[in-house]
Design goal:
Number of helices: 3
Low-confidence stretches: none
CATH class: Alpha Beta
Shape: globular
Structural class: alpha+beta
Strand order of the largest sheet: 1-2-3
Radius of gyration: 11 Å
CATH topology: Enolase-like, domain 1
Order of helices and strands: EEEHHH
Number of strands: 3
CATH architecture: 2-Layer Sandwich
Distance between the termini: 10 Å
Strand content: 25-35%
Length: about 80
């Protein structure tokens, strides 16, 4: 399944997440902090979507009530 998600309240503009049998196969993020998001993408590849949600949900970015990792968790939670 491909999840095409438009994050809200963060610098990134789009997330494209490939999930197969409940496992994140790939993550592409447009916009945002390029290096950090590349790192996050590599870290979540091969992880169960449930584990990604548990680890990343609720992370804040500075004074923002959300973050790119939190938005990734929301995208997975809404679509699984």
């Amino acid at each position: 399944m491909t999840i095409d998600f438009q994050p809200k309240g963060v610098c990134s503009r789009r997330m494209r997440i490939e999930v197969e049998d409940g496992v994140v196969k790939s993550l592409e993020v447009q916009g945002g902090c390029h290096g950090n998001l590349q790192g996050i993408s590599k870290l979540v590849e091969g992880m169960k979507a449930e584990d990604v949600i548990a680890r990343l949900e609720g992370i804040h970015c500075g004074l923002k009530p959300t973050s790119c990792p939190d938005q990734l968790a929301r995208a997975l939670k809404e679509n699984l």
